[in-house]
Request: fold
Amino acid sequence: MSKQTANPDRISDAEQAVMEALWTRSPLTAAEVADTVGEDRGWSLATVKTLLSRLVGKNAIAAEPDGRRFLYSPVIARADFVGHESRRLVDRLFGGKAASLFAHLAEAEALSDTDIEEIEVLLRELRK
Amino acid sequence: MSKQTANPDRISDAEQAVMEALWTRSPLTAAEVADTVGEDRGWSLATVKTLLSRLVGKNAIAAEPDGRRFLYSPVIARADFVGHESRRLVDRLFGGKAASLFAHLAEAEALSDTDIEEIEVLLRELRK
DNA sequence: TCGAAACGATTACGAGTGTAAACAGTGGAC
DNA sequence: GTCCACTGTTTACACTCGTAATCGTTTCGA
Reply:
């Protein structure tokens, strides 16, 4: 009672790769996902099928029957996932303060000139 | 060949809690860490000892002998850890673009007014 | 009609994690 | 001098993750 309780159905790295494929285009069959994802990751079809099953188990994707196979589609939106993970990071590392994350990025020179410009634009938007 | 190869000595959530204690004050004995951390997390001394051992194994902390016990201190700095994890998130979710992370936070209304003000100040600094 | 290909489901297995109990050595109190 | 408390080390165990192989079924081509 603890890892899965504290960690309810977190999407793992490998699983995320599969999600990315489905966020890009869906629905897809297992074979199609494997074609897309397995390519760069060097995964076998079997591996992709396992990941798909696990994602279905986590209710992250839905499997709609289509003849004797399934068509998979995301259930959770990418924006939600991204939001969840971002918040998690901000909470874990910056005491929940998003500005601290920003300060860190600035200090670590992790912000390119382009980044800074874009953020300025966004800020002007926000200030309106 | 893959999880530990792709994931060389990552610091886990539970381990991070121990690190936080040591980043706050160090060196500490195992018992002291347990007093600090075990309290809120409800961990037994045994659990804390295990985590300390694993962290030593990962070269994240150092154990200096002090009589018949050890004094533990961080080897990696919090800023480095935070930097690493932040970059990891930006890479995984925002294609490496920090500005995208910022845009997401803005859009998700994860930025408080205070956050925005602070960021503006930081930006002015950066522009100099 | 018969065998091969294609599918999902089941099983596998080592590494990492969360959480701890059991064990062994030792130094201090009495 | 003996025993207890404390310390690090070893072992444990269930669960997740990465990565598949195998199995059972079904369908399509020959």
The first strand of chain A starts at residue 61 and ends at 66. Residues 78-127 of chain A form a domain with the Penicillinase repressor fold fold (CATH 1.10.4040).
